[in-house]
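Tip: read the tokens left to right.
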């Protein structure tokens, strides 16, 4: 029997490895022949996180406003000459004009005179470029039918090729910085020529095998400093805005059709002159994006395929999921980090290698699917009651990633002074006591059909109202909180904690809209609630130590409770991080359990608080001093006395609404 079992396992391992090798070979061939290339480009487009544009690059835009005021395009040469003269008065470092003048026209003498500056001026030339072929592995692209400005202009300016050829999906990602014309002469690109002149020396570029440079885009359109050409003709224009700057003049009006889609501009195209600005910044900052060699991508494909094919068959289904997720996430993070460092790892094919191998192995091992179901059921049993689990399993869609907005009640509870409580206890004893405490609190939550969201050290987060529909979720949560305090008192009476120490906890409740559902990755998630109402519940729990209370609720929870609960209006506070104040109440007890003294304390305190909010400090103090004779250890009373005395000396602003702003959590 043992030999047969081992043989079956060996066959499983060999077939799994063969499947992954087949996937690796198939993907390597697809990659080598350029399959799915546009998909890879689009994935890499998402890695552009944006950066600060250089403040020495200014775009003078021939925009709609300029066309409306100066006239339709093309402008007379005299008007263009005037624009060049106005820019020249500012003494820019380099002037790049993305406007070609291939034919003689009236006013050329004015334009030629204006272009004869003692600083560098770069004009474009254009060409029909050869489309790169995978069968020609290297060398600059060939330029056919070049079109340059007239000879008189070309002789007095620098020229650069202004073509911005898009990739096959219509996105401009890279620009050829060198091309070869029909006479064998090397032509430098418009943007790289400007960058060299601005730097004062030839800059060494990190180009691909076809002398193309990947542009490291700064951001969306209009990221750079724009000045309308119209404004240059205004009498109040400050020429200092262009002084010692790289000034780029080009068309931005949509009707002039010099706009392009880029990785950072897929909904609103980017003007060609701003594409050149991004190229110039990439060169000057040397923020080059280097494509890793194809051999590295093929090596990664086979490494992932062989790795999964060897390891996954030897793991349980859930560990296979964890391994796949960990390797996948680690590779994506590596690609992001490497991209930020200037190197472009292929994202698509290694990720496909991981995904396809994992899927094929999962199908081959039917046990994966069954193990996944068992894992989900076990995971839910830890923080949902059986009734809630059955409700979820009736509708499997509730297990899908994402969430929906629901109005629920959230609870946070936390042990006060846990550090001092744990002093003198060995780790094993501390863990045992903490587990016993948390078990008892958890049983109360689950018995009331609440969702145990998570443990945060010695703290507990739970909520009611989802996924099980519970119209009275605030009432159930309030009853659970009172039961927890009762169980805690029982725990303390039994002297479970050594040396006569007692556990004290604070509980905070808040009701409000949240997003509740499964959050996380497709193979690793938690059923949880997120939203501002959750944060307020957490902050409310923390306020217990400020008032010496055990249970605090917000006005939103109070509004959902009936007369069966006794509460005390404590304060109106703006919790840390918020400006808007909210009323908080102490949840005292159920109505039948109210003692006469408690009732008197609550009524007197609320009367005093009403005078406090009306800025009637003396009347509030009279009541509060009477209260101190009834209850000497009420921290809320002491706090309110201190505030009244403080405001008597330093009255609040006239528009004060009674809100006390908390500076700490």
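Filled-in amino acids:
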């Amino acid at each position: 029997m043992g030999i047969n079992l081992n043989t079956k396992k060996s066959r499983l391992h060999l077939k799994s490895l063969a499947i992954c090798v087949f996937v690796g070979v198939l993907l390597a061939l697809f990659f080598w022949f350029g399959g799915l290339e546009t998909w890879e480009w689009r994935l890499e487009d998402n890695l552009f996180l944006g950066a600060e544009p250089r403040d020495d690059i200014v775009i003078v835009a021939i925009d709609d406003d300029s066309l409306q005021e100066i006239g339709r395009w093309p402008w007379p040469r005299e008007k263009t000459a005037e624009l060049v003269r106005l820019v020249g008065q500012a003494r820019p470092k380099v002037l790049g004009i993305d406007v070609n003048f291939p034919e003689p026209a009236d006013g050329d003498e004015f334009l030629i005179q204006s272009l004869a500056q003692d600083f560098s001026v770069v004009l474009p030339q254009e060409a029909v470029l050869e489309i790169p072929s995978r069968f020609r592995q290297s060398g600059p692209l060939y330029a056919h039918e070049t079109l340059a400005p007239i000879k008189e202009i070309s002789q007095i300016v620098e020229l650069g090729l202004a073509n911005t050829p898009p990739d096959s999906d219509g996105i401009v990602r890279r620009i050829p910085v060198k091309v070869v014309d029909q006479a064998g002469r090397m032509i430098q690109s418009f943007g790289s020529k400007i960058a060299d002149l601005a730097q004062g020396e030839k800059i060494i570029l990190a180009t691909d095998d076809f002398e193309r440079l990947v542009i490291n885009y700064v951001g969306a359109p209009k990221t750079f400093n724009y000045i309308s050409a119209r404004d240059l003709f205004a009498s109040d224009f400050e020429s200092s805005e262009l002084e010692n700057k790289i000034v780029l003049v080009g068309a931005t009006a949509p009707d002039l059709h010099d706009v392009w889609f880029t990785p950072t501009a897929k909904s609103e195209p980017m003007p060609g002159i701003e594409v050149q600005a991004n190229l110039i910044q990439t060169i000057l900052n040397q923020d080059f994006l280097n494509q890793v060699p194809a051999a590295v991508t093929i090596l990664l494909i086979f490494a992932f395929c062989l790795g999964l094919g060897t390891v996954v068959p030897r793991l349980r289904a859930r560990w296979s999921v964890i391994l796949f997720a960990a390797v996948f996430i680690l590779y994506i993070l590596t690609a992001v980090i490497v991209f930020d460092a200037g190197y472009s790892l292929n994202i698509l094919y290694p990720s496909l290698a991981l995904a396809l191998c994992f899927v094929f192995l999962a199908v081959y091992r039917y046990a994966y699917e069954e193990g996944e179901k068992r894992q989900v059921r076990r995971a839910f049993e830890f923080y949902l009651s059986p009734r809630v689990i059955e409700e979820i399993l009736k509708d499997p869609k509730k297990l899908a990633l994402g969430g929906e907005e629901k109005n629920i009640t959230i609870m946070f509870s936390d042990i006060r002074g846990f550090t001092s409580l744990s002093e003198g206890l060995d780790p094993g004893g501390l863990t045992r006591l903490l587990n016993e405490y948390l078990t008892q609190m958890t049983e109360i939550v689950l018995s009331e059909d609440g969702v145990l969201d998570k443990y945060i050290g010695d703290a507990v987060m739970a909520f009611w109202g989802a996924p099980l529909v519970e119209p009275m979720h605030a009432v159930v949560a309030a009853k659970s909180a009172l039961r927890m305090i009762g169980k805690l008192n029982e725990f303390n009476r039994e002297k479970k904690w050594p040396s006569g120490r007692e556990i004290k906890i604070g509980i905070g409740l808040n009701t409000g809209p949240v997003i509740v559902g499964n959050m996380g990755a497709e193979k690793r998630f938690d059923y949880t609630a997120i939203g501002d109402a959750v944060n307020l519940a957490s902050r409310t729990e923390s306020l217990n130590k400020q008032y010496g209370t055990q249970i605090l609720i917000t006005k939103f929870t109070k509004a959902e409770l009936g007369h069966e609960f006794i509460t005390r209006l404590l304060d109106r506070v703006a919790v840390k991080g918020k400006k808007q104040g909210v009323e908080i109440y102490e949840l005292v007890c159920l109505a039948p359990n109210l003692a006469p003294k408690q009732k008197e304390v609550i009524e007197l305190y609320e009367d005093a608080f009403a005078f406090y909010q009306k800025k009637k400090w003396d009347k509030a103090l009279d009541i509060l001093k009477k209260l101190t004779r009834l209850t000497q250890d009420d921290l809320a009373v002491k706090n309110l006395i201190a505030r009244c005395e403080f405001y008597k000396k330093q009255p609040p602003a006239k528009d004060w609404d009674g809100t006390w702003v908390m500076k700490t959590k």
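The chain has three domains: 2-46+292-370, 57-282, 385-561. The CA atoms of residues 566 and 589 lie 5 Å apart.
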